[in-house]
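Hey,

The postdoc asked me to send both predictions to you directly instead of through the lab channel. I've kept everything plain text so nothing gets mangled by the mail client. Protein one:
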Amino acid sequence: MSGHRRSAVSRTRILVRRVHLWLGLSLGLLFAVLGLTGSALVFYTGIDAALHPVVEAKPGDVPPGLASPAWDRALATGRARWRHPGDKWTLEVTGEGGPIPARYYPASGHGHHTDRMMVWFSPDGTRIVRAEPWGGYLMSWLYQLHMALLAGDLGGQVVGWSGVAMLVLLVSGIAAWWPRGSWRKALAFKRDAAPIRRLRDLHKLSGLWSMALLFVLVATGVLLALPAVTQALLAPATIPAPKSAGGGDHQIAIVEALYTAHRALPDGRIVFIDIPGAGDAPIRVRLQVPGDPHRRFPGSYVFIDQFSGLVLAVHDVRRAGTGTAVASWIRTLHDGTVGGVATRILAVLIGFVPTILLTTGILHWLRRRKAARTV
Protein backbone atom coordinates (compact mmCIF):
# COMPACT_ATOMS: atom_id res chain seq x y z
CA MET A 1 0.00 0.00 0.00
CA SER A 2 1.40 3.39 -0.99
CA GLY A 3 2.03 6.06 1.60
CA HIS A 4 -0.72 8.28 0.17
CA ARG A 5 -3.29 5.48 0.27
CA ARG A 6 -2.20 4.46 3.77
CA SER A 7 -2.65 8.05 4.92
CA ALA A 8 -6.14 8.22 3.38
CA VAL A 9 -7.14 4.98 5.13
CA SER A 10 -5.82 6.29 8.44
CA ARG A 11 -7.76 9.55 8.06
CA THR A 12 -10.91 7.59 7.25
CA ARG A 13 -10.51 5.39 10.33
CA ILE A 14 -9.98 8.46 12.51
CA LEU A 15 -13.15 10.03 11.08
CA VAL A 16 -15.16 6.83 11.63
CA ARG A 17 -13.94 6.60 15.23
CA ARG A 18 -14.94 10.20 15.86
CA VAL A 19 -18.38 9.61 14.37
CA HIS A 20 -18.73 6.53 16.57
CA LEU A 21 -17.57 8.41 19.66
CA TRP A 22 -19.88 11.39 19.26
CA LEU A 23 -22.86 9.29 18.28
CA GLY A 24 -22.20 7.12 21.33
CA LEU A 25 -21.93 10.11 23.66
CA SER A 26 -25.06 11.76 22.27
CA LEU A 27 -27.25 8.67 21.85
CA GLY A 28 -25.79 6.28 24.41
CA LEU A 29 -28.13 7.17 27.26
CA LEU A 30 -31.23 6.92 25.06
CA PHE A 31 -29.95 3.61 23.64
CA ALA A 32 -29.48 2.28 27.18
CA VAL A 33 -32.94 3.41 28.29
CA LEU A 34 -34.60 1.81 25.27
CA GLY A 35 -32.63 -1.38 25.83
CA LEU A 36 -33.51 -1.68 29.51
CA THR A 37 -37.18 -0.85 29.00
CA GLY A 38 -37.29 -3.28 26.09
CA SER A 39 -35.93 -6.02 28.33
CA ALA A 40 -38.64 -5.33 30.90
CA LEU A 41 -41.35 -5.41 28.24
CA VAL A 42 -40.44 -8.79 26.75
CA PHE A 43 -42.48 -10.45 29.52
CA TYR A 44 -44.64 -7.43 30.36
CA THR A 45 -47.99 -9.23 30.57
CA GLY A 46 -46.55 -11.85 32.93
CA ILE A 47 -44.82 -9.22 35.07
CA ASP A 48 -47.99 -7.14 35.23
CA ALA A 49 -50.03 -10.18 36.29
CA ALA A 50 -47.47 -10.95 39.01
CA LEU A 51 -47.73 -7.35 40.26
CA HIS A 52 -51.54 -7.55 40.21
CA PRO A 53 -52.55 -11.08 41.28
CA VAL A 54 -56.24 -10.24 40.81
CA VAL A 55 -55.79 -10.72 37.04
CA GLU A 56 -53.79 -13.95 37.25
CA ALA A 57 -55.38 -17.17 36.09
CA LYS A 58 -55.97 -19.70 38.85
CA PRO A 59 -55.20 -23.42 38.50
CA GLY A 60 -58.15 -25.13 36.90
CA ASP A 61 -59.55 -21.96 35.29
CA VAL A 62 -61.16 -22.77 31.94
CA PRO A 63 -61.13 -20.13 29.19
CA PRO A 64 -64.54 -19.12 27.82
CA GLY A 65 -65.36 -20.69 24.47
CA LEU A 66 -66.45 -18.68 21.45
CA ALA A 67 -70.09 -19.45 22.26
CA SER A 68 -69.78 -18.48 25.93
CA PRO A 69 -72.22 -15.81 27.20
CA ALA A 70 -69.30 -14.35 29.20
CA TRP A 71 -68.29 -12.17 26.21
CA ASP A 72 -71.61 -10.38 25.95
CA ARG A 73 -71.92 -10.19 29.73
CA ALA A 74 -68.51 -8.51 29.91
CA LEU A 75 -69.50 -5.95 27.26
CA ALA A 76 -72.76 -5.23 29.08
CA THR A 77 -70.89 -4.85 32.38
CA GLY A 78 -68.44 -2.42 30.79
CA ARG A 79 -71.13 -0.37 29.11
CA ALA A 80 -73.00 -0.13 32.38
CA ARG A 81 -69.90 1.41 33.96
CA TRP A 82 -69.04 3.74 31.03
CA ARG A 83 -72.29 4.76 29.38
CA HIS A 84 -71.35 6.99 26.44
CA PRO A 85 -72.94 5.46 23.28
CA GLY A 86 -69.98 6.31 21.02
CA ASP A 87 -67.36 4.50 23.10
CA LYS A 88 -65.48 1.53 21.63
CA TRP A 89 -64.40 -1.72 23.26
CA THR A 90 -61.82 -4.38 22.49
CA LEU A 91 -62.01 -7.77 24.17
CA GLU A 92 -58.99 -10.08 24.12
CA VAL A 93 -59.44 -13.81 23.55
CA THR A 94 -56.37 -15.14 25.33
CA GLY A 95 -57.25 -18.82 25.18
CA GLU A 96 -56.35 -19.01 28.87
CA GLY A 97 -58.46 -19.02 32.00
CA GLY A 98 -58.79 -16.15 34.42
CA PRO A 99 -60.16 -12.63 33.96
CA ILE A 100 -61.05 -11.36 30.50
CA PRO A 101 -58.72 -8.48 29.41
CA ALA A 102 -60.32 -5.58 27.55
CA ARG A 103 -59.60 -2.08 26.33
CA TYR A 104 -62.05 0.80 26.55
CA TYR A 105 -61.73 3.76 24.16
CA PRO A 106 -63.84 6.87 24.91
CA ALA A 107 -65.41 8.42 21.83
CA SER A 108 -63.48 11.64 22.46
CA GLY A 109 -60.10 9.94 22.17
CA HIS A 110 -57.81 10.22 19.18
CA GLY A 111 -54.94 7.87 18.47
CA HIS A 112 -54.26 4.32 19.51
CA HIS A 113 -53.46 4.97 23.18
CA THR A 114 -55.31 8.24 23.90
CA ASP A 115 -57.60 8.08 26.94
CA ARG A 116 -57.38 4.32 26.85
CA MET A 117 -58.62 2.35 29.85
CA MET A 118 -57.39 -1.16 30.50
CA VAL A 119 -60.15 -3.29 32.01
CA TRP A 120 -60.24 -6.85 33.34
CA PHE A 121 -63.60 -8.62 33.74
CA SER A 122 -64.27 -11.61 35.96
CA PRO A 123 -64.23 -14.92 34.03
CA ASP A 124 -68.04 -14.93 33.84
CA GLY A 125 -68.11 -11.30 32.66
CA THR A 126 -70.31 -10.04 35.47
CA ARG A 127 -67.75 -7.93 37.38
CA ILE A 128 -64.87 -5.54 36.73
CA VAL A 129 -61.95 -6.82 38.79
CA ARG A 130 -59.43 -4.18 37.68
CA ALA A 131 -59.54 -0.96 35.66
CA GLU A 132 -56.56 1.38 35.14
CA PRO A 133 -55.76 4.03 32.54
CA TRP A 134 -53.10 3.19 30.00
CA GLY A 135 -49.89 4.75 31.23
CA GLY A 136 -51.15 4.86 34.80
CA TYR A 137 -49.49 1.66 35.99
CA LEU A 138 -45.89 0.50 35.82
CA MET A 139 -45.78 -1.77 32.78
CA SER A 140 -47.90 0.51 30.60
CA TRP A 141 -45.74 3.48 31.70
CA LEU A 142 -42.62 1.55 30.65
CA TYR A 143 -44.30 0.72 27.34
CA GLN A 144 -44.98 4.40 26.65
CA LEU A 145 -41.43 5.29 27.67
CA HIS A 146 -40.00 2.67 25.35
CA MET A 147 -42.20 3.49 22.36
CA ALA A 148 -42.44 7.27 22.58
CA LEU A 149 -40.46 8.61 25.56
CA LEU A 150 -43.79 9.57 27.20
CA ALA A 151 -44.19 12.24 24.52
CA GLY A 152 -46.88 10.89 22.19
CA ASP A 153 -46.47 10.99 18.42
CA LEU A 154 -43.51 13.38 18.59
CA GLY A 155 -41.73 11.04 20.98
CA GLY A 156 -42.35 8.14 18.61
CA GLN A 157 -40.70 10.11 15.82
CA VAL A 158 -37.72 10.87 18.06
CA VAL A 159 -37.36 7.20 18.96
CA GLY A 160 -37.65 6.13 15.33
CA TRP A 161 -35.15 8.55 13.83
CA SER A 162 -32.79 8.13 16.77
CA GLY A 163 -32.94 4.43 15.97
CA VAL A 164 -31.67 5.20 12.47
CA ALA A 165 -28.72 7.03 14.04
CA MET A 166 -28.19 4.04 16.36
CA LEU A 167 -27.84 1.81 13.30
CA VAL A 168 -25.10 4.16 12.09
CA LEU A 169 -23.55 3.94 15.56
CA LEU A 170 -23.44 0.13 15.35
CA VAL A 171 -22.03 0.09 11.83
CA SER A 172 -19.40 2.71 12.69
CA GLY A 173 -18.36 0.61 15.69
CA ILE A 174 -17.66 -2.37 13.44
CA ALA A 175 -15.85 -0.17 10.94
CA ALA A 176 -13.72 1.44 13.66
CA TRP A 177 -12.79 -1.97 15.06
CA TRP A 178 -12.13 -3.76 11.74
CA PRO A 179 -8.68 -5.31 12.11
CA ARG A 180 -5.81 -4.48 9.80
CA GLY A 181 -3.70 -7.33 11.12
CA SER A 182 -4.38 -10.48 13.14
CA TRP A 183 -8.05 -11.30 13.70
CA ARG A 184 -7.08 -13.43 16.66
CA LYS A 185 -5.56 -10.44 18.42
CA ALA A 186 -8.48 -8.24 17.43
CA LEU A 187 -10.90 -10.68 19.08
CA ALA A 188 -8.85 -11.28 22.21
CA PHE A 189 -9.58 -10.00 25.71
CA LYS A 190 -6.29 -9.12 27.40
CA ARG A 191 -6.85 -9.76 31.11
CA ASP A 192 -3.36 -8.64 32.11
CA ALA A 193 -3.44 -5.41 30.14
CA ALA A 194 -3.79 -1.93 31.61
CA PRO A 195 -7.29 -0.93 32.80
CA ILE A 196 -7.84 1.32 29.79
CA ARG A 197 -7.12 -1.58 27.44
CA ARG A 198 -9.42 -3.94 29.35
CA LEU A 199 -12.22 -1.39 29.11
CA ARG A 200 -11.65 -1.13 25.38
CA ASP A 201 -11.67 -4.93 25.00
CA LEU A 202 -14.86 -5.29 27.05
CA HIS A 203 -16.56 -2.58 24.99
CA LYS A 204 -15.34 -4.12 21.76
CA LEU A 205 -16.34 -7.70 22.55
CA SER A 206 -19.72 -6.76 24.01
CA GLY A 207 -20.56 -4.99 20.78
CA LEU A 208 -19.14 -7.64 18.47
CA TRP A 209 -20.89 -10.65 19.99
CA SER A 210 -24.25 -8.90 20.18
CA MET A 211 -24.00 -6.91 16.95
CA ALA A 212 -26.28 -9.00 14.74
CA LEU A 213 -29.06 -9.24 17.31
CA LEU A 214 -28.75 -5.58 18.30
CA PHE A 215 -28.99 -4.59 14.65
CA VAL A 216 -32.18 -6.65 14.21
CA LEU A 217 -33.76 -5.22 17.38
CA VAL A 218 -32.91 -1.62 16.46
CA ALA A 219 -33.94 -1.96 12.80
CA THR A 220 -37.29 -3.54 13.67
CA GLY A 221 -37.79 -0.90 16.36
CA VAL A 222 -37.31 1.81 13.73
CA LEU A 223 -39.93 0.18 11.50
CA LEU A 224 -42.40 -0.05 14.39
CA ALA A 225 -41.83 3.56 15.44
CA LEU A 226 -41.99 4.93 11.88
CA PRO A 227 -44.94 3.27 10.12
CA ALA A 228 -44.65 5.67 7.18
CA VAL A 229 -41.11 4.40 6.57
CA THR A 230 -42.34 0.80 6.80
CA GLN A 231 -45.08 1.59 4.29
CA ALA A 232 -42.59 3.16 1.90
CA LEU A 233 -40.06 0.31 2.18
CA LEU A 234 -42.35 -2.72 2.23
CA ALA A 235 -45.62 -1.45 0.72
CA PRO A 236 -47.83 -3.86 2.73
CA ALA A 237 -51.41 -4.24 1.58
CA THR A 238 -53.83 -1.67 2.94
CA ILE A 239 -56.18 -3.06 5.58
CA PRO A 240 -59.81 -2.61 4.48
CA ALA A 241 -62.01 0.01 6.14
CA PRO A 242 -65.60 -0.98 5.36
CA LYS A 243 -68.67 0.52 7.02
CA SER A 244 -71.77 -1.08 8.46
CA ALA A 245 -74.99 -0.48 6.57
CA GLY A 246 -77.07 2.34 8.01
CA GLY A 247 -80.47 2.04 9.57
CA GLY A 248 -79.73 -0.60 12.19
CA ASP A 249 -80.67 0.00 15.79
CA HIS A 250 -79.59 -3.26 17.39
CA GLN A 251 -76.00 -4.48 17.47
CA ILE A 252 -75.45 -8.21 16.98
CA ALA A 253 -74.20 -10.30 19.89
CA ILE A 254 -70.47 -10.85 20.29
CA VAL A 255 -70.92 -14.63 20.10
CA GLU A 256 -72.58 -14.19 16.70
CA ALA A 257 -69.67 -12.06 15.48
CA LEU A 258 -67.15 -14.60 16.77
CA TYR A 259 -68.98 -17.42 15.02
CA THR A 260 -69.13 -15.44 11.77
CA ALA A 261 -65.42 -14.62 11.91
CA HIS A 262 -64.54 -18.25 12.60
CA ARG A 263 -66.64 -19.31 9.62
CA ALA A 264 -64.90 -16.72 7.39
CA LEU A 265 -61.41 -17.89 8.43
CA PRO A 266 -61.96 -21.38 9.89
CA ASP A 267 -58.24 -22.08 10.35
CA GLY A 268 -57.68 -18.79 12.18
CA ARG A 269 -57.34 -18.39 15.94
CA ILE A 270 -59.36 -15.42 17.22
CA VAL A 271 -57.29 -13.04 19.36
CA PHE A 272 -59.20 -9.73 19.59
CA ILE A 273 -62.67 -8.46 18.83
CA ASP A 274 -63.28 -4.72 18.42
CA ILE A 275 -66.84 -3.59 19.16
CA PRO A 276 -67.76 -0.09 17.96
CA GLY A 277 -70.17 2.25 19.63
CA ALA A 278 -72.75 4.38 17.83
CA GLY A 279 -72.09 4.96 14.15
CA ASP A 280 -71.38 2.87 11.08
CA ALA A 281 -68.06 1.27 12.04
CA PRO A 282 -67.93 -2.52 11.65
CA ILE A 283 -67.11 -5.12 14.24
CA ARG A 284 -63.51 -6.14 13.62
CA VAL A 285 -62.19 -9.56 14.60
CA ARG A 286 -58.42 -10.12 14.60
CA LEU A 287 -57.10 -13.62 13.97
CA GLN A 288 -53.84 -15.54 13.71
CA VAL A 289 -53.79 -17.81 10.68
CA PRO A 290 -51.19 -20.52 9.99
CA GLY A 291 -47.93 -18.90 8.92
CA ASP A 292 -48.54 -15.63 10.77
CA PRO A 293 -45.61 -15.48 13.22
CA HIS A 294 -47.03 -13.28 15.99
CA ARG A 295 -49.36 -15.02 18.42
CA ARG A 296 -50.68 -11.97 20.26
CA PHE A 297 -50.74 -9.32 17.51
CA PRO A 298 -51.40 -11.17 14.25
CA GLY A 299 -52.34 -9.41 11.03
CA SER A 300 -55.53 -11.01 9.68
CA TYR A 301 -58.99 -9.46 10.15
CA VAL A 302 -62.64 -10.16 9.48
CA PHE A 303 -64.93 -7.12 9.26
CA ILE A 304 -68.57 -7.71 10.14
CA ASP A 305 -71.59 -5.41 9.81
CA GLN A 306 -72.48 -4.59 13.40
CA PHE A 307 -76.22 -4.62 12.63
CA SER A 308 -76.79 -7.35 10.04
CA GLY A 309 -73.92 -9.67 10.96
CA LEU A 310 -72.79 -9.95 7.33
CA VAL A 311 -69.09 -10.23 6.46
CA LEU A 312 -68.00 -6.96 4.88
CA ALA A 313 -64.34 -7.76 4.19
CA VAL A 314 -61.59 -10.25 5.00
CA HIS A 315 -57.91 -9.35 5.26
CA ASP A 316 -55.87 -12.56 5.18
CA VAL A 317 -52.10 -12.00 5.48
CA ARG A 318 -51.50 -15.13 3.38
CA ARG A 319 -53.13 -13.43 0.40
CA ALA A 320 -51.93 -9.88 0.98
CA GLY A 321 -48.63 -9.99 -0.87
CA THR A 322 -44.92 -10.16 -0.09
CA GLY A 323 -44.75 -6.76 1.62
CA THR A 324 -47.41 -7.77 4.14
CA ALA A 325 -45.73 -11.12 4.73
CA VAL A 326 -42.41 -9.42 5.47
CA ALA A 327 -44.05 -6.76 7.65
CA SER A 328 -45.73 -9.46 9.74
CA TRP A 329 -42.29 -10.50 11.03
CA ILE A 330 -41.27 -7.07 12.32
CA ARG A 331 -42.95 -7.20 15.73
CA THR A 332 -42.09 -10.83 16.47
CA LEU A 333 -38.42 -10.17 15.68
CA HIS A 334 -38.44 -7.05 17.83
CA ASP A 335 -40.03 -8.55 20.94
CA GLY A 336 -38.20 -11.87 20.76
CA THR A 337 -41.30 -14.04 20.35
CA VAL A 338 -39.97 -15.44 17.07
CA GLY A 339 -38.56 -18.56 18.74
CA GLY A 340 -40.61 -18.85 21.91
CA VAL A 341 -39.31 -18.57 25.46
CA ALA A 342 -35.64 -19.12 24.51
CA THR A 343 -35.48 -16.14 22.12
CA ARG A 344 -37.47 -13.99 24.53
CA ILE A 345 -34.87 -14.65 27.24
CA LEU A 346 -32.15 -13.82 24.70
CA ALA A 347 -33.94 -10.56 23.89
CA VAL A 348 -33.97 -9.70 27.61
CA LEU A 349 -30.22 -10.25 27.83
CA ILE A 350 -29.48 -8.28 24.66
CA GLY A 351 -31.42 -5.36 26.11
CA PHE A 352 -28.70 -4.92 28.74
CA VAL A 353 -25.91 -4.63 26.16
CA PRO A 354 -26.45 -0.91 25.33
CA THR A 355 -25.96 -0.09 29.01
CA ILE A 356 -22.72 -2.10 29.06
CA LEU A 357 -21.55 -0.36 25.88
CA LEU A 358 -22.43 3.08 27.28
CA THR A 359 -20.64 2.43 30.58
CA THR A 360 -17.48 0.94 29.10
CA GLY A 361 -17.39 3.49 26.29
CA ILE A 362 -17.63 6.49 28.63
CA LEU A 363 -15.11 5.06 31.09
CA HIS A 364 -12.66 4.35 28.27
CA TRP A 365 -13.15 7.86 26.84
CA LEU A 366 -12.63 9.50 30.26
CA ARG A 367 -9.46 7.47 30.89
CA ARG A 368 -8.10 8.48 27.50
CA ARG A 369 -8.83 12.14 28.19
CA LYS A 370 -7.13 11.87 31.58
CA ALA A 371 -4.11 10.15 30.05
CA ALA A 372 -3.88 12.82 27.32
CA ARG A 373 -3.90 15.63 29.92
CA THR A 374 -1.04 14.04 31.88
CA VAL A 375 1.24 13.74 28.86
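Protein two:
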Amino acid sequence: MSRKYQPAEITGEAMSEEQRAAWLEAGRLLFAREATFMLGVAGLAQLPDTDVPEVCFAGRSNVGKSSLINAVTGRNTLARTSVTPGRTQELNFFNLADRLILADLPGYGFAKAPKDKVEAWTRTTMSYLRGRAQLRRVLVLVDSRHGLKDVDREVMRMLDQAAVNYQIVLTKIDKLKKGEAEKRQQETTTELLRHVAAHPEVILTSSEKGDGIAELRATLAALGLPL
Protein backbone atom coordinates (compact mmCIF):
# COMPACT_ATOMS: atom_id res chain seq x y z
CA MET A 1 0.00 0.00 0.00
CA SER A 2 1.31 3.44 -0.92
CA ARG A 3 2.40 5.62 1.98
CA LYS A 4 0.34 8.78 2.39
CA TYR A 5 1.85 11.98 1.08
CA GLN A 6 0.17 15.27 1.93
CA PRO A 7 1.02 18.12 -0.49
CA ALA A 8 1.39 21.32 1.53
CA GLU A 9 1.40 23.33 -1.71
CA ILE A 10 -2.25 22.39 -2.33
CA THR A 11 -3.85 23.35 0.97
CA GLY A 12 -1.16 24.46 3.38
CA GLU A 13 -2.31 21.70 5.72
CA ALA A 14 -3.46 18.10 5.62
CA MET A 15 -6.21 17.57 3.08
CA SER A 16 -9.56 16.05 3.85
CA GLU A 17 -10.23 12.58 2.48
CA GLU A 18 -12.43 14.12 -0.23
CA GLN A 19 -9.74 16.61 -1.26
CA ARG A 20 -7.10 13.91 -1.31
CA ALA A 21 -9.30 11.64 -3.43
CA ALA A 22 -9.87 14.45 -5.96
CA TRP A 23 -6.14 15.24 -6.03
CA LEU A 24 -5.22 11.62 -6.71
CA GLU A 25 -7.95 11.28 -9.33
CA ALA A 26 -6.56 14.25 -11.26
CA GLY A 27 -3.22 12.46 -11.39
CA ARG A 28 -4.82 9.19 -12.47
CA LEU A 29 -6.75 10.88 -15.27
CA LEU A 30 -3.72 12.70 -16.64
CA PHE A 31 -1.50 9.63 -16.70
CA ALA A 32 -4.25 7.48 -18.21
CA ARG A 33 -3.69 9.49 -21.39
CA GLU A 34 -1.30 8.40 -24.14
CA ALA A 35 2.40 8.89 -23.47
CA THR A 36 4.79 8.79 -26.42
CA PHE A 37 8.51 9.19 -27.00
CA MET A 38 9.21 12.51 -28.73
CA LEU A 39 12.95 12.66 -29.40
CA GLY A 40 16.41 12.38 -27.94
CA VAL A 41 18.44 15.57 -27.77
CA ALA A 42 22.23 15.71 -27.87
CA GLY A 43 22.50 19.52 -28.02
CA LEU A 44 20.48 22.57 -27.06
CA ALA A 45 19.68 23.42 -30.70
CA GLN A 46 17.61 20.23 -30.89
CA LEU A 47 15.31 21.00 -27.95
CA PRO A 48 11.61 20.67 -28.86
CA ASP A 49 9.91 24.01 -29.51
CA THR A 50 6.63 23.79 -27.59
CA ASP A 51 4.68 25.77 -25.02
CA VAL A 52 3.67 22.62 -23.11
CA PRO A 53 4.81 22.56 -19.47
CA GLU A 54 7.81 20.35 -18.79
CA VAL A 55 9.03 18.37 -15.80
CA CYS A 56 12.43 16.74 -15.90
CA PHE A 57 13.88 13.78 -14.03
CA ALA A 58 17.46 14.34 -12.86
CA GLY A 59 19.74 12.34 -10.59
CA ARG A 60 22.92 10.35 -10.22
CA SER A 61 23.64 7.61 -12.73
CA ASN A 62 21.58 4.46 -12.06
CA VAL A 63 19.28 6.18 -9.53
CA GLY A 64 16.22 4.91 -11.40
CA LYS A 65 15.06 7.82 -13.57
CA SER A 66 13.92 5.72 -16.53
CA SER A 67 12.27 3.15 -14.26
CA LEU A 68 10.33 5.89 -12.48
CA ILE A 69 9.16 7.42 -15.78
CA ASN A 70 7.91 3.99 -16.84
CA ALA A 71 6.16 3.50 -13.50
CA VAL A 72 4.48 6.91 -13.42
CA THR A 73 3.25 6.55 -17.02
CA GLY A 74 2.24 2.93 -16.51
CA ARG A 75 4.24 1.86 -19.56
CA ASN A 76 7.03 -0.63 -18.96
CA THR A 77 9.14 0.19 -22.01
CA LEU A 78 8.52 3.89 -22.64
CA ALA A 79 11.92 4.89 -21.26
CA ARG A 80 14.87 2.60 -21.76
CA THR A 81 16.32 1.19 -18.54
CA SER A 82 19.72 -0.32 -17.93
CA VAL A 83 21.85 -1.61 -15.07
CA THR A 84 24.83 0.14 -16.67
CA PRO A 85 25.36 3.65 -15.20
CA GLY A 86 25.38 6.34 -17.86
CA ARG A 87 23.26 4.45 -20.41
CA THR A 88 21.03 7.50 -20.97
CA GLN A 89 23.31 9.67 -23.12
CA GLU A 90 20.79 12.22 -24.38
CA LEU A 91 17.96 14.34 -23.01
CA ASN A 92 14.98 12.14 -23.84
CA PHE A 93 11.56 13.80 -24.11
CA PHE A 94 8.16 12.14 -23.68
CA ASN A 95 4.82 13.75 -24.54
CA LEU A 96 1.83 13.09 -22.30
CA ALA A 97 -1.11 13.93 -24.62
CA ASP A 98 0.18 17.51 -25.13
CA ARG A 99 -0.61 18.24 -21.46
CA LEU A 100 2.80 17.65 -19.96
CA ILE A 101 6.25 16.80 -21.31
CA LEU A 102 8.60 14.61 -19.28
CA ALA A 103 12.35 14.84 -19.81
CA ASP A 104 14.75 12.07 -18.81
CA LEU A 105 18.17 13.64 -18.28
CA PRO A 106 21.56 11.92 -18.48
CA GLY A 107 22.70 10.80 -15.05
CA TYR A 108 25.29 12.93 -13.33
CA GLY A 109 28.22 11.56 -11.38
CA PHE A 110 29.75 8.21 -12.25
CA ALA A 111 29.12 6.91 -15.77
CA LYS A 112 30.80 4.25 -17.91
CA ALA A 113 31.61 6.59 -20.77
CA PRO A 114 34.61 8.65 -21.94
CA LYS A 115 35.30 11.67 -19.74
CA ASP A 116 34.88 14.18 -22.58
CA LYS A 117 31.48 12.75 -23.43
CA VAL A 118 30.34 12.90 -19.80
CA GLU A 119 31.48 16.53 -19.64
CA ALA A 120 29.51 17.32 -22.81
CA TRP A 121 26.33 15.74 -21.35
CA THR A 122 26.84 17.71 -18.17
CA ARG A 123 27.21 21.05 -19.99
CA THR A 124 24.12 20.43 -22.11
CA THR A 125 22.07 19.30 -19.12
CA MET A 126 23.04 22.25 -16.95
CA SER A 127 22.32 24.71 -19.76
CA TYR A 128 18.90 23.11 -20.22
CA LEU A 129 18.12 23.37 -16.51
CA ARG A 130 19.12 27.04 -16.34
CA GLY A 131 17.43 28.27 -19.48
CA ARG A 132 14.23 26.32 -20.22
CA ALA A 133 11.32 28.74 -19.79
CA GLN A 134 8.59 26.06 -19.80
CA LEU A 135 10.35 23.92 -17.20
CA ARG A 136 7.94 23.81 -14.24
CA ARG A 137 9.95 21.62 -11.91
CA VAL A 138 13.07 19.51 -11.69
CA LEU A 139 12.61 16.20 -9.91
CA VAL A 140 15.95 15.39 -8.31
CA LEU A 141 15.93 11.64 -7.75
CA VAL A 142 17.96 10.32 -4.83
CA ASP A 143 18.54 6.66 -3.99
CA SER A 144 16.95 6.27 -0.56
CA ARG A 145 19.57 3.71 0.46
CA HIS A 146 22.33 6.32 0.25
CA GLY A 147 20.64 9.70 0.70
CA LEU A 148 21.97 13.00 -0.61
CA LYS A 149 25.54 12.94 -1.90
CA ASP A 150 27.90 15.84 -2.61
CA VAL A 151 27.15 15.64 -6.35
CA ASP A 152 23.43 16.03 -5.57
CA ARG A 153 24.15 19.02 -3.37
CA GLU A 154 26.22 20.61 -6.14
CA VAL A 155 23.27 20.34 -8.54
CA MET A 156 20.92 21.67 -5.86
CA ARG A 157 23.13 24.72 -5.30
CA MET A 158 23.17 25.40 -9.03
CA LEU A 159 19.36 25.20 -9.15
CA ASP A 160 19.15 27.52 -6.12
CA GLN A 161 21.37 30.06 -7.87
CA ALA A 162 19.35 29.81 -11.09
CA ALA A 163 16.04 30.03 -9.17
CA VAL A 164 14.80 26.79 -10.75
CA ASN A 165 12.18 25.01 -8.65
CA TYR A 166 13.09 21.45 -7.76
CA GLN A 167 11.74 18.62 -5.63
CA ILE A 168 13.51 15.63 -4.11
CA VAL A 169 12.11 12.19 -4.91
CA LEU A 170 13.56 9.30 -2.92
CA THR A 171 13.68 6.14 -5.02
CA LYS A 172 13.91 2.41 -4.24
CA ILE A 173 12.26 2.66 -0.83
CA ASP A 174 11.26 -0.99 -1.14
CA LYS A 175 14.90 -1.74 -0.37
CA LEU A 176 14.50 -0.16 3.10
CA LYS A 177 12.46 -0.98 6.13
CA LYS A 178 9.55 1.42 6.73
CA GLY A 179 11.26 3.15 9.65
CA GLU A 180 14.46 3.60 7.66
CA ALA A 181 12.63 5.16 4.71
CA GLU A 182 10.79 7.65 6.92
CA LYS A 183 14.05 8.53 8.71
CA ARG A 184 15.71 9.21 5.35
CA GLN A 185 12.73 11.35 4.33
CA GLN A 186 13.02 13.42 7.51
CA GLU A 187 16.79 13.86 7.14
CA THR A 188 16.33 15.04 3.58
CA THR A 189 13.48 17.39 4.48
CA THR A 190 15.61 19.00 7.19
CA GLU A 191 18.51 19.57 4.80
CA LEU A 192 16.19 21.17 2.23
CA LEU A 193 15.46 24.02 4.65
CA ARG A 194 18.83 25.49 3.60
CA HIS A 195 17.93 25.54 -0.11
CA VAL A 196 15.87 28.45 -1.42
CA ALA A 197 14.59 26.83 -4.63
CA ALA A 198 13.72 23.46 -3.10
CA HIS A 199 10.12 22.34 -2.76
CA PRO A 200 9.58 21.41 0.92
CA GLU A 201 7.88 18.06 0.26
CA VAL A 202 9.99 14.93 -0.24
CA ILE A 203 8.21 12.07 -2.05
CA LEU A 204 8.98 8.43 -1.26
CA THR A 205 8.73 6.10 -4.26
CA SER A 206 9.32 2.55 -5.40
CA SER A 207 9.06 1.87 -9.12
CA GLU A 208 9.00 -1.87 -8.39
CA LYS A 209 6.32 -1.91 -5.69
CA GLY A 210 4.34 1.19 -6.73
CA ASP A 211 4.78 3.15 -3.50
CA GLY A 212 4.31 6.88 -4.05
CA ILE A 213 3.44 6.57 -7.74
CA ALA A 214 -0.16 7.80 -7.38
CA GLU A 215 1.07 10.75 -5.30
CA LEU A 216 3.77 11.60 -7.81
CA ARG A 217 1.22 11.53 -10.64
CA ALA A 218 -1.03 13.91 -8.71
CA THR A 219 1.88 16.24 -7.99
CA LEU A 220 2.83 16.36 -11.67
CA ALA A 221 -0.81 16.78 -12.77
CA ALA A 222 -0.94 20.01 -10.78
CA LEU A 223 1.96 21.32 -12.91
CA GLY A 224 0.53 20.43 -16.33
CA LEU A 225 -2.15 21.96 -18.53
CA PRO A 226 -5.77 21.59 -17.34
CA LEU A 227 -7.49 18.35 -18.32
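Summary for protein two, as requested: Residues 1-6, 8-13, 82-87 have pLDDT under 50 and may be disordered.

Thanks,
C.
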